[in-house]
Amino acid sequence: MSDSEQYNIETADAGASDTIPCEAGQIKKGGYIMIKGKPCKVLNISVSKTGKHGHAKCNFTAVDIFTGKKLEDMVPSTHGTTVPIVTRTEWEIIDIGEEGELTLMDEGGNQKTDVNLPSIPENMAQEIRDAWADGENQVNVTVQAAVGQEQVIAFKKTSASD
């Protein structure tokens, strides 16, 4: 390649993926797995005996981490599957918009405005609104992120003097 050729860089990340490959037999209960393109938390794994085709099969029962729907998948234990990279971060609520859009700030002073109040469970959004409207407490939320999606999964009130 000559020095005169130009590279067009589309993204500023390090090329990291939202998922990592993993052998199905290495996934444990309580871990994460991608099923039908959805990031899921594994609830149960049952392993069948080696059959005439030579592979034990792992039957995964898991729940979608964003919708709560139960999903199942069966994968030979020696075959590869994908595991989502799931992160959780703490944010303080600065403002709640009319449509439930949140303005959040982390400990470093960075702001985030692309997260809405959670729709699951149904009562959590109203509980967060009530706690924030109280005014005497600051409200912190935990935002879970995986495969390009983010959602509030928990909240807690802390006194303003903390």
TrEMBL record:
Coiled coil: none annotated. One of its GO terms (cellular component) is chloroplast. eIF-5A seems to be the only eukaryotic protein to have a hypusine residue which is a post-translational modification of a lysine by the addition of a butylamino group. The keyword Protein biosynthesis applies. One of its GO terms (biological process) is positive regulation of translational termination. The keyword Kinase does not apply. It is found in: Plastid, Chloroplast. SMART domains: eIF-5a. InterPro entries: IF5A-like, IF5A-like_N, IF5A_C, NA-bd_OB-fold, Rib_uL2_dom2, Trans_elong_IF5A_hypusine_site, Translation_prot_SH3-like_sf. It comes from the Eukaryota. Residues 85-156 form the Translation initiation factor 5A C-terminal domain. One of its GO terms (molecular function) is translation elongation factor activity. Gene3D superfamilies: 2.30.30.30, Nucleic acid-binding proteins. Keywords: Chloroplast, Hypusine, Plastid, Protein biosynthesis. Belongs to the eIF-5A family. Translation factor that promotes translation elongation and termination, particularly upon ribosome stalling at specific amino acid sequence contexts. Binds between the exit (E) and peptidyl (P) site of the ribosome and promotes rescue of stalled ribosome: specifically required for efficient translation of polyproline-containing peptides as well as other motifs that stall the ribosome. Acts as ribosome quality control (RQC) cofactor by joining the RQC complex to facilitate peptidyl transfer during CAT tailing step. This is Eukaryotic translation initiation factor 5A.
